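Notes continue from the previous slide.

Worked example: a multi-chain complex. Inputs as given:
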Amino acid sequence: MAELKKIATRDSYGNALAELGKEHEDVIVFDADLSGATKTSVFKKAFPDRHFNCGIAEGNMLAVAAGAAAMGLVPFASTFAMFAAGRAFEQVRNSIGYPHLNVKIGATHGGISVGEDGASHQCCEDFATMRSIPGMVVLCPSDDVEAKAAVKAAYEHKGPVYMRFGRLAVPVFHEEGMKFEIGRGELLRDGRDVAIIATGLMSYEALKAAEALAEKGIDARVVNLCTIKPLDEELVVRAAADCGKVITCEEHSVIGGLGEAVCALLGEKCPVPVRRIGVNDEFGHSGPAGKLLEQFGLSAAHIVEVAEDFCR
Amino acid sequence: MTANEKKELGMLACKVRMGVVTATHAAKSGHPGGSLSAAELFTYLYFKEMKVDPANPAWADRDRFVLSKGHTAPGLYAALALRGFFPVGELETLRHIGSRLQGHPNMNETPGVDMSTGSLGQGVSCAAGMALSAKYMKKDLRVYTLLGDGEIEEGQVWEALMFAHHHKLDNLCVIVDNNGLQIDGRIEDVMSPYPIPDKLKAFGLHVVEIDGTDFEQMEAAFAEAKATKGVPTAIVMKTTKGKGVSFMEDKAGWHGKAPNDEEYAQAMSELNAALAEWEAK
């Protein structure tokens, strides 16, 4: 495959926020002393009077954002995924989810591709906690183009949205101007032997894996699911029905994430064998992001191995 | 404050207390103690202090109230009902299946409730977010929030106060109901948050201490809060948990327990006597 430009989706988030700010005065941004890392600093530079630092107090920040939404504004609150979906889970659940307030949570540094900072900052549980909140939309864009579209869609959606972005620069494989709709997945490649359903940075890995599998005579379908919740049930069930085998891929624990969401759906609507690729109930550790992804099996090479074994 | 105004507020506070006792009795559960300690405060806010319109609960420019100590919803509901947000008779549906009156406040179900609360320490942050937003939106409105003295043991309360001070939210008024009791006993025995005014001052708030049953002191404190610019104001009010019902007064056991039929009858007869006393004034 041709060498693609690489951009971290956290950069896409910052840029998309600044764009939104131009069009909508009701957009305000909260950060918790991480604006340089979450890239809300890009918004702050453009709109200093609409960016509010909450300091290192994430629980307070999420509830403050709930108050802002109750006043009719559209607050985007940002910190690392670990602190938004972990530390502040209960604030998100009770002050945002329960009253179904229009808060957008921009969580960066999701997954183990955080890299050198190690396990304490590598959140692999955010899909699980955020999915469990009634009415919460959970998004995990796969590249720059999709991330910018997701931020725009999140603004237009009425209700709470959790968006997970990454620290690592990843290939931009979508065409600018792609069609994006919350709750709708994307068929990246058709195939009949096995369906690979992926999210986030694993979607491009799945595409690469499908190309390698084609050379081995395995015809893999690739589905990109930016929306973890609500799941595109129709697309997932069709993939399972057409291919008879499903592999899920996510930079998240195999517990509570995309894999389990897909299994739950297929168990009820179209039971087929599923293999889940993700972080296998263990903590991450320090190291360069690329090496970590390889080590944890979050790579095209590992998807190929699993698919070959699955289709044998 | 005229004698007549004081009398009217006193009578209303009695009726708020009757609402609390009636609702928790009908629910066979709920939190009468902290609802009764703040009865004068609920009354003062909704009948004197706040700019609200029961005919238009969603009025964008209204003042906001966040009951951070959400378990004392019966007190808030009684005040809202008496103010005309919904029928007083509805108080008897508290905590029942299908009722708009949830065990803890729900902004989407109950007319007049500005924020869903119940998990302690979060409401004050929501109130700070509202106050900040009002400033950003250039709205001339005030935000009030009521906290329990046990509630301020939550770390988030202090995060919120730090935030409110840093962002100069002088349109925010934080009220602490210092009734001295929490579920497990006296607050100084469980895990003391004292000295409360000193801690609030250290966080940069303007602090006013009052007797939480004295409407004149309340009036002066809220006027002082409005006149204070650049920092939020905290009103620490000394109260008695269970106030107005002799056997509930200053008893931690009445934090979250409903009166039975006999207790209900006695409570109502005491409150009716108190009401008659106000009427005679």
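Summary box: The interface with chain B takes residues 28, 49-50, 52, 54-55, 57, 59-60, 62-68, 70-73, 75, 90-91, 94-95, 98-100 of chain A (CB under 8 Å). Chain A has a mean pLDDT of 98.
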